[in-house]
Each structure stands twice: as C-alpha cells, then as structure tokens.
Amino acid sequence: MLTSQRKKAILDALDRDGQVLAGDLSAAFGVSEDTVRRDLRELAAQGRLQRVHGGALPASAAVAPLAAREDMDVAAKQRVARKAASMIEPGQVAIVDGGTTSALLVQCLTPDLTATIVTHSPGIAVALAAHPCVEVVLIGGRLYKHSVVSVGAAAIEAMSHIHADLYFMGVTGVHASAGFSTGDYEETYVKRALAARAAETVVLACASKLNTASQFRIGGLEMAQTLVVDAGATAKQTRALEEAGLTIVRA
C-alpha cells in the first residue's frame, strides 16, 4: 500500500470511528508501527489529526487565529449563543469565556437583563460596556493574543474570589475519551480555575468541534454538566457524550 493510500485510510478510519490505534493500523496495513507513527506525524504536521498516546484523534479546526475563526460556522455559533444567553437568569453571576461564540452570546443578552458577567476577555467586557443593566467584572493578567484573553497567575488568583452560578466555557475540541481541549497550555489552567468557581459549567460547541481534540487537555467530560450544540450535531456525534453524563442542549 502506498503512503498516500495509508494516509487516506487513516483519515477515513478517524472519520468513521473517532480514533485510531497505531497497533491496529500496523496490523491492518501490514507495515511496522514505526511506519504508522511516521504517517501520523506527517498528518499531524498538516493539521489533519491530533496525535495521542498509542494513536490519534480527529484534529479540531478551531485553533486558527481569532480573525479566521470569526468567519467559521457563523450561523451555528449564533444559534448556540442565543440558547446560551437564554440560560442566564436575572440576578445571577455568570462567567463568560473568551472566543467567537462567547462574543455572540453577549450580543444576545436582552437589554433588561440584570446580572453580573465576569470575564477574562477585554473584548467581551467592552461589548457589555453599553448594556444598561449588566455589571461587568473584568479579570486581568497577561494577554494571550490568539484568543484575546487574560491568562497567567494574576488571572487565576483573581478568579479565586468568585462564586458564579454559571460558567460558559469555550473549547476547541470535545471528545468522549480525550475530554475537553484547547490549543494553548496556559489557557487550560485558566479554564479549569474558572470551572472550579462556578456551580455549573456549560460548554459551548458547534458540531464541527465534536469528537475532535487539540493539543492541550482542559479536563474530562465530568468537569461540565451541560453541552450546548447546534442542531446540526447528529445523534452519532453526541451519543457517547450523553452516555458520559453530559446534558445535551440543542440550539
């Protein structure tokens, strides 16, 4: 089998099964595991998959720069954002993550909503500056330019004083075995710290992020209670996530 044929077979298997194991591929192709690992390395370098111990998972496309992500899955993100915004009750304290879906979420808040929004995203804070009834708490720290959010020790220290009702968490990947993931190491610590300060963590993800993974793991599926997905998410995509205990809300 040619290298190009093996790589296509690997990607087909990822699309079909959601993961591949190097040992199984080696046996199926009749080649050494070293050859399979080389194929996986090359596909990972092209952004086609995410390597993990023993094999690979589908790679998330949501690790592109912010400007590029603003044009991805816009209609789906808008539906997810509207559903998420409707979950905030008057008087609640809600933490809103950075990211393109979160930016749409705050645009969907009704003008008469009285609530407190805590965010480590300067863009989210500025977007809420003109809201007549929402109090805004902006967490500072080192600016992570890729997502335009504050990260680092100062941000995590500030979060320790918060008790929130909800945390709307953005991720780049949701996978039944790999959990929630993102494309930046420091962001994982910030997201874990925010989740620890909320009574309920709600993950926002359009269908393209389901059953994919990025380089850095935020945590297992148990760290969230609810997953808001767009209506384009199929039952096959969400079945394992529901079986893991997540409440799936379709927008």
From TrEMBL:
Lineage top rank: taxon: Bacteria
Keyword Phosphoprotein: no
SMART domains the UniProt entry points to: DeoRC, HTH_DEOR
InterPro entries in alphabetical order: Carb_Metab_HTH_regulators, DeoR-like_C, DeoR_HTH, NagB/RpiA_transferase-like, Tscrpt_reg_HTH_DeoR_CS, WH-like_DNA-bd_sf, WH_DNA-bd_sf
One Pfam family recorded for the sequence: DeoRC
Residue span(s) of domain HTH deoR-type: 3-58
GO molecular function: DNA binding; DNA-binding transcription factor activity
Cited Gene3D superfamilies: 3.40.50.1360, Winged helix-like DNA-binding domain superfamily/Winged helix DNA-binding domain
Alphabetical keyword list: DNA-binding, Repressor, Transcription, Transcription regulation
Protein name: DeoR/GlpR family transcriptional regulator of sugar metabolism
Gene source species: Paraburkholderia bannensis
Lineage: Bacteria, Pseudomonadati, Pseudomonadota, Betaproteobacteria, Burkholderiales
